[in-house]
Amino acid sequence: MANILWLQGGACSGNTMSFLNAEEPSACDLVTDFGMNILWQPSLGVELGDDVKNILKNCISGETKLDIFVFEGSVVNAPNGSGEWNRFCGRPMKEWVRELCDAADFVVALGDCATWGGIPATAPNPSESEGLQFLKRANGGFLGADFKGKAGLPVINIPGCPAHPDWVTQILVAIATGRAGDLALDEFQRPKTFFQSFTQTGCTRNMHFAYKVSTTEFGQRKGCLFYDLGCRGPMTHSPCNRILWNRVSSKTRAGMPCLGCTEPEFPFFDLAPGTVFKTQTVMGVPKDLPTGVDKKGYIKLTGAAKAAMPAWAEQDIFVV
Amino acid sequence: MSNDDDALRDRIGRLMANGLVTKTEPFPENNIEFEKVLDELRDVAPDSLEEKLIISGFVDKPYGEDEQRCLECMYYLVHRKWCDLPELAVPVEAEWWCRLWRI
């Protein structure tokens, strides 16, 4: 039996909604088949008011063993570091978070806001938001760079806006079944099993990427979304085209550019006008090139790819 | 490739060979500047071919010290010999260039 407590800070509940869409295992399967005991969760918990407060206090005191603490949403520090803008159960949420993180064997930051600050931490960051152990790319965040849960791991970051339900359930299952030691984390404390490959890995538009054919308008099935529509698939670490959404699709498969939501900088360019759904360029060359590719190589590759382009690459090859 | 495309490509080629002066500069430094050129093109009547060519800076040879040309541009469809940028959408030759060149 693993006790799980789940709280929300500066959050839109998107990760909870995503989690509730989980299948194989579903949220119910976690309880019935994997021995998880959800002490409280904002959308599932039946307790209110003082009863919730007592659950939290019992976790902090150790009366109830807290195996996994899941936090969704940013840690809100405003105004002036007090955290009063986000109160919960009679005190600033950040105070609960600090004590619960110290009490938990494992701490899981779920979604961009909890991992790196996400949209709430976008400049000028009026809510003084930060992630549990990062603020954007900088290690530290609310808990500090040296924080480790009682089991010895730093915060396990599962980013995404929202995170795919499988990313959450599989990590929870791994921890609850005693396989946390198998979790390898990357430099941003993301489980490598999900965040080593790129969003582009498995993308159905890869052939068009290879032959440098651009999607020029939303809804086009031909072409690659990287060249014109700001797709960040080649630079973003996520398994969105390996572990499909709703088991059937992904943003890029549906003709929607990847926004890079599993990376610390999301939302990119602080959402400045003209930066969303637009490939940023410098003198006609994309500002952000696919990871590991330099400008010179990119230009050479483009020439070669265009020269070798087969006729079908220019056409809509998807027949309804 | 249709005969109509071929005829239009020839016509565009003749316009440039006959000295059509187009706005090759300034080259849009970034996508914001690029968008401004596109905005200009969107205001052009669909049948105003010359105006389109002038705004987009068409030339009938590679351009600049890097010898940029349609062939490497991401909007160029090699087999159709076509510029697939919706605001232009004209038949072109691989060795031509315009300031909406992007890779």
Can you give me a brief rundown of this structure?
Chain A has 320 residues and is of the alpha/beta class. Chain A has helices at residues 14-20, 27-32, 50-61, 93-103, 112-116, 165-176, 192-195, 206-210, 295-307, and strands at 2-8, 36-40, 68-72, 75-76, 87-88, 91-92, 106-110, 129-130, 134-135, 138-139, 156-158, 281-282, 285-286.
How does this structure look, described?
The complex is a heterodimer of chains A (320) and B (103). Chain A is an alpha/beta fold and 320 residues long. Chain A folds into two domains: 2-195, NADH:ubiquinone oxidoreductase-like, 20kDa subunit (Rossmann fold, 3-Layer(aba) Sandwich), CATH 3.40.50.700; 197-314, Cytochrome-c3 hydrogenase, C-terminal domain (Cytochrome-c3 Hydrogenase, Chain A, domain 2). Chain A has helices at 14-20, 27-32, 50-61, 93-103, 112-116, 165-176, 192-195, 206-210, 295-307, and strands spanning 2-8, 36-40, 68-72, 75-76, 87-88, 91-92, 106-110, 129-130, 134-135, 138-139, 156-158, 281-282, 285-286. Chain A has a five-stranded parallel sheet, with helices on both faces. In chain A, strands 4-8 form a two-stranded antiparallel ribbon. In chain A, helix 1 crosses helix 6 and helix 3 (50-61) runs parallel beside helix 4. Chain A starts with a strand and ends in a 13-residue tail after the last helix. The mean pLDDT of chain A is 95. By secondary structure, chain B is mainly alpha-helical. Chain B has one domain. Helix content of chain B is 34%, strand content 4%. Chain B has helices at residues 3-17, 31-42, 49-56; strands at residues 76-77, 82-83. Chain B has a two-stranded antiparallel ribbon with strand order 1-2. Chain B starts with a helix and ends in a 20-residue tail after the last strand. The mean pLDDT of chain B is 94. Chains A and B meet through strand 12, strand 13 and helix 9 of A and helix 2 and strand 1 of B.
